[in-house]
Amino acid sequence: MTPRELLEVAKIPGTSDELRLFRRGGDFMIVLDRNELMNSRMSRSEEALATMTAERLRGRAGHWLIGGYGMGFTLRAALAVLGDAARVTVAELVPEIIGWARGPMAGLAAGCLDDRRVTVVRDDVAALIDGARGEYDAILLDVDNGPDGLTRASNGRLYSARGLDAARAALAPGGVLATWSAAPDPRFARRLGDAGFAVDEVVVRARSNGKGPRHVIWFAARR
């Protein structure tokens, strides 16, 4: 097997933890401790986060907020289905992630960060949500392995009752909050319903061939 090569290391703001970028052959991996957060071979569910949100909005473009750039799968999928009038704000707290997209993973990024519809903000997505009222037609969250604050403990507030109330207030009427997870979480699904959302839970395989781990996406529509 081709050995894994460590390319870059980045500190997660507000913590002592580090993200590590590896390459094995033509594949990239972003790792936290022993947890592989992202792998360039498994993109289907991250793409579905965008495409399935667009389906639920039925052609409505408006303003989308994406929490976490990652490897850009969600952003690229969103740009492919959104029209020219759409706006997409990407909140990325770790500046090195954007640097990796423009450096070692530039081929994977395919220029998506330079699309005129895209604005990258170096900030916690929770701060953008808290400061908005009816601003976004869609909020897409993929900042952790699920609603448990793995990458950064303070991310847990995004998935709390208070955080969900803030997300609902930040959405325009009929807007969608889409949340990605590596595994089911019945308690989070119930919190979404308790926050007044109409909830649709979808299981999506990680690989484009329909194989690989089963990931979960919750699509929560503001009534």
What does this structure look like?
There is one protein chain. By secondary structure, the protein is of the alpha/beta class. The chain has 7 helices and 11 strands. The protein has helices at 44-57, 73-81, 95-102, 106-109, 125-130, 161-170, 186-194; strands spanning 5-11, 18-24, 27-32, 35-39, 63-67, 87-91, 118-121, 136-141, 171-181, 197-205, 214-222. The strands form 2 sheets. A 7-stranded mixed beta sheet has the order 7-6-5-8-9-11-10, with helices on both faces. It has a 4-stranded antiparallel beta sheet with strand order 1-2-3-4, with helices on one face. Helix 1 runs parallel beside helix 2. The longest helix is centred in the N-terminal third of the chain and has 14 residues, at 44-57. The mean pLDDT is 93.
